[in-house]
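Crash report, auto-generated. Payload:
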Amino acid sequence: DAKTTQPNSMESNEEEPVHLPCNHSTISGTDYIHWYRQLPSQGPEYVIHGLTSNVNNRMASLAIAEDRKSSTLILHRATLRDAAVYYCILRVTGTASKLTFGTGTRLQVTL
Amino acid sequence: NAGVTQTPKFRVLKTGQSMTLLCAQDMNHEYMYWYRQDPGMGLRLIHYSVGEGTTAKGEVPDGYNVSRLKKQNFLLGLESAAPSQTSVYFCASSLAATSGANVLTFGAGSRLTVL
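Recovered output after restart:
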């Protein structure tokens, strides 16, 4: 399975934008890039996903490099409630929709 | 709309005891999964099911059994619990699609301690 690399932790001030990077240099042409986050003591929740084009939804934006070997999750205005572990995952087309989680990036948000 | 519900939320077992974790989803999802998460680590897939009556092994299946007798339920069993199975267990479900765009919905987790 193609792997992803994320920083172990990042910090942000509240109400500032946050850019969470992810490297996936071995991504194949049909792999989707998914982001999930896990708030303290909760199950993971879906944030956003994309294939080639940048994507926006109510939670975040996903910027995908032209060569698809990296991507960035953008939280436009971080709040204390965004403090969580963020997982960047490659979703392989043609499998039974399994997700392979790494250790993610722990985002701390301070006042 | 409850989504994915796991029971129990907490359980303490003694080594050698057996137990079953229940996962129920009300979204008519075809696929269901069981993951475990150890402290400071990401989730690891134990078993999964692509439909009623089917199950398959994931990354760490040893010591666990599963059953999918009804579409909405996915049971995870520990026949003889060991301290190494102390973990938080998460169930998830998704629509039936092999597209990489398919997303998973997770339950809140079941915290299991084996003494």
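Post-recovery validation: The CA atoms of residues 23 and 70 of chain A lie 4 Å apart.
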